[in-house]
Design goal:
There is one protein chain. With about 550 residues, the chain is an all-alpha fold. It is about 65% helix and about 0% strand. The protein is built from 22 helices and no strands. The chain is globular, with a radius of gyration of 24 Å. It starts with a helix and ends in a 15-residue tail after the last helix.
Amino acid sequence: MNPALLRVDRDIGAAPPMTSTDEHPPAPAGRLAGLLTRYPLAQKALLILPVLAVAGPFASIRPGAAGFPYFYRIVWFLCLAVAVPLFWWESRRHSLPKLYAGVLAWWLIWAPITWLWTPAPGVGRTEIMAGAMAMAGAFVVVVLTRGSSASLRYLRWGWMVAFAVNTAIVSWEFCTGNHLDLVTGVQPWYFSAYSVAGLDTNPNGLSNFNVAIFAVLCAQMVREVGSRRATRAAAEAFENEATTPTSALVPSTVCGSISQRIGLGVRGSARRIIVLYVAMALCAYTVYMTGSRAGAMSQLLLTLMTAAWCFRGRRLLVVPIALVALAAVIPVVQQSDLRLVRPAAVAQRAAHEGRGSGHYQDNVSDDQKAVDVAKADAARAELTKSGLRAMAEKPLQGHGAGSSITWVAHDPLYPATSANGQRRVINLHNTFLEIGVNYGLIGLLPILAVPLWALMRFLRPRTFLRLWPDPVVLEGLGVLLALLVTSVITSSSIGSPMFWLFYAYAAALAWNYQDAARADLRAQLADGGPADGVPATVSGR
């Protein structure tokens, strides 16, 4: 095999081809081959997994039932019959799915071991099982995408279906002042009628979900208005799965002829751009109704990033200008009063219910609301300090599965959080810190490896500069941001299918981007690169 091509594979962290004549792994034989022929059918599951994941307890035979989403579990369990042989015969030769499979295997081994010394065995057993099921569902998603653009399109459409379903429920909550879990009668609602939650049953959870949706919408906007450059020919062909060989996509062609040669058609449809902008505005408005400051700041950052990404397509300067205008509106709207936009009947009903709320209480002044927000921030800070103290005490092995709440309850330095001197014992509201407390660095570091690996792939300097603006990178960074925000504002996400779906989606996007970069570099070599076989602009030297 050409040594220069091996250096390309090494520089971008991809597995080299099996032979010099065949870049695909050998086909499986026997019954496993029959299972793999079912892949196109299993691939369609990517359309429904996001909506089942965000539906949480409502994705069950008895809507609102406590526990792991029932239908989500059934779907990914059925898909395991295809995902496992698909991983074994094909995906295990690629770095990201192999790394994720290692993380899942490590969880299945290490988490039960920590149960031996946990002070809360009942909670720990539930946490281990819920985490294992959620991570297994995400593993199925990673493998079924295969790093291909076609599979990722299925998953994107799945996010859009989840967004549509959730938005319909949020609109019903907005207009009626009710909440879905109140209708099911399973668990009490602790927020006022001014806060919406949708399928997640928590305003922060809804905000986290919408940040990920916002990232997908931003990437689609970049695809519509981003200019095509000759240097992106091979990457464009790979990401759009064109049939033209990458070696034929020489950098000497102009952008217009490239789009014709790889059969992409005309982009930049005004109708699609308007639909995307309206969806982004609706997504931002929904986050505003949750009162989530972290969600609003994340969307503000993603909007500005998208404006910068779209600026390169100068023929549509109106798009980045409109995005900047949206970014300017987000912080202004975030500080406004929800009563100004609620239907009058709902506002009158809420004003007499007198239910407490972490934000947007019904009958309190703006000063009192500010005090409540400050108390919430102080409580999170104290929980973080308590978690760090716990990790310092047992940094390697942790305190055992499900032990974080027990630690907070007995931490002598954790202050009282109520007027009568009682502690409000809750989860740490920081998922990665909670994993560190429960499972130690031995459990935490492997779990951090996947998002860090994905981030390294997205921001590899020379590849990034050559292929920028790449919508896959923007989408991946946005999903990683949603993962980070979810981990630091949600009470606990260890057993959340949505949290691990963010985790898997970021890995799948990084896998796709890594393979696109590989195709781009190999096309350069086929077209005649520098003497040493690795283009100086992308070799990393």
